[in-house]
Predict the 3D structure of the following.
Amino acid sequence: MTIATLPRRTLLQAGGTLLASTALPTFALAQGAGNRLVVAADSEPKNLNPAIVASNGVFFIASKVVEPLAEASFDGKGGLAPRLATSWEGSADGKSVTFKLREGVKWHDGKPFTSADVAYSALNIWKPLQNLGRLVFANLEAVDTPDATTAVFKFSKPTPLQLIRNALPVVSSVVPKHLYEGTDIATNPANVKLVGTGPFKFTEYKPGEYYRLTKNADYWAKGEPKLDEIIFRVLPDRAGAGAALEAEEIQLAAFSAVPLTDLARISKVPGIKVTSKGYEALTYQLVVEINHRRKELADVKVRQAIAHAIDKKFVVDTIFLGYAAASTGPVPKNAPEFYDASVPTYAFDTAKANALLDEAGYKKGANGTRFSLKLRPAPYFNETKQFGDYLRQALAAVGIDAQLINADSAAHQKAVYTDHDFDLAIGPPVFRGDPAISTTILVRSGIPAGVPFSNQGGYENKELDGIIAKAAETVDTAARTELYKQFQKIVATDLPLINVAEWGFITVARDTVSNVSNNPRWAVSNWSDTALKS
Amino acid sequence: MRLLRDLVRTPEGAIGLGILAALVLVALFAPMLSAGDPLRIAGRALLPPFTDPAFPLGTDRLGRDVLAGILHGTRTSLAVGLAAALAAIAIGLCVGLTAGFAGGLVDEGLMRIVDAFQIVPSFLLALAFVSVIGASVPVVVLAIALGAWADPARLTRAQVLSIRERDYVASARVIGMHPAEIAFREILPNALPPVLALSAIIVAAAILTEAALSFLGLGDPNVVTWGSMIAEGRNILRSSPSLSIFPGIALVVTVVGVYLFSEGLTKALGGRRLEP
């Protein structure tokens, strides 16, 4: 057979194999293997147990294997779709919540799933070990299990059902009691080789290459999962994901694995779809953190001037290329339950900013500057670094000389959250569905130095602290929501920090993948209904 | 002057000198060629090159003028390159002269320190130094000099070892000159030429090291450098390759200029030694 008579497809495939052979020989031809979805993964968490590490990097892979009690949903009641729990109900005094659990669910090793597993996970893992569970279940005393499908959570202090509901998808991953009981939980082998109840079983992990999940034929939802296999292929280089999609080596790249600047080009490639849906419950906020120990920044007029100096439209259009929204306050628009639009806003107005600074008594010196500041942009995202470059210029326009300091993640966190060696910092905190477990920590006082992503700017406002403390134990949903609306007004008026923009991520997928982005936490949900058209 | 004439006679030297002179002029007059802060946001983002006369080389992701960045980047690159090379040669000369002239234990001790610095790859040393102390222009200069002083030190010592046995040094000793005077007035001037030829190579390496540090985000973020321009352009290499290409060309031209100059200098110096 000469080259000329080879079918073109074979030739292309051979070429693809050749190109990919150095990277990953086994899965170079994803489309040839029936119902297998190949996904780009950019990190390999050391501990994959979502009950211990409730972070997106872990959920991305683990959520297909280990399920929570409920998942976020666009149209479900209270924004939730049932998973391992079928219903939940809080008592009037806020001291107990009763979960009805799904019947006939089996662990991947064949043992039945019961309320004992939920009780064990809650008391031995979520409350003492999990980063977020510590906050949500701080007052959890006991979990009663009257029968195999009922779990009653008992709290020592009133705990709002609204908070638990909002946190359920993130904090409630259930792990099997029979594998963890009596072992050292932190070093249990099941933290890496996961055992869960989810639609996919954890089959194989090759460090630096891939994770392989295979279909759970005994899954409780009939007819699901629709895929036979999911491969998470490790592609740490962001530029690589776009090329791999075009070459059909992978079929899906979530969490903005394809850089924003590449989206305009890749969206024109036939067979590739770009969507920003499916991240509504994973909103990141672009925030200017302020060190109130600096006497200039302790003056609210100066903070207002800085807010007026920032052109949010430029930030959204140029830095985020439109894949973001301008912020009005500490709660993002994607949390409609809490979001309040009627707060003071700060339009881009350089003249007003200059006037406010003059009023505050910081006149321009002979060289055109009023004072100098240390500006530390967080290094985690390209966008936070670019916003740092932009903010320096925006502040220069109103006579504030900001000196940028770049550092790696560890040095940045130490400088800002432990040593307080900053005047302004740029951070990307995550809004986790409820203000009690996210945005309030950035303004509340009394947090010891060294807690990352918290108020380390020395800001103290008794009224605000009071509202946050009251909301933490207000059981009535409407009253609690009202408290958080007050909280937003105070933050937007007093500006302990400046919220600039909020953004989600982008999913890029081949158009053969169906049921993509159909819930607000899609990338970190179980993908049981995701299918591949051939 | 004779050295300069010899230098210009070699084709390498003439071209190298021409390029360097042009770069020095650009560096000196950068504020006049493009006024204001080169990092300021001047226009629409991502203008392609050669389309808008106000921005001949286009603009970057945030709308900063690429031409202004390259012009002002010349200052940073040359300043860092020259300062680092000067520092490295100053340290190297002092250490080499002391070691060669004093001999004995002092020589042994100093040379082991030189060994230690030669063993550590100079780029890693600079990387570690900058990430620990923090990125600013003086720190970057020091970090580069730290990795570059060992070569001139060794070369100086070798020169000194051969020169100090010459008759005129012996006679200087006999007439009772102070050892320091002998070292600086008799030996140093004669040990200098080969070290100077080395200096151009150190400048070129320093410019590249500075660009690499900036590329990795360890340059001073408050000044524009070619390395940081290339790094920022890298993210959008496929849609706007010119953002990386233009500063890349500037870097190549500079380094080639310095290398040609050094080649010419070596030839000119070598030729002079052959003359009767």
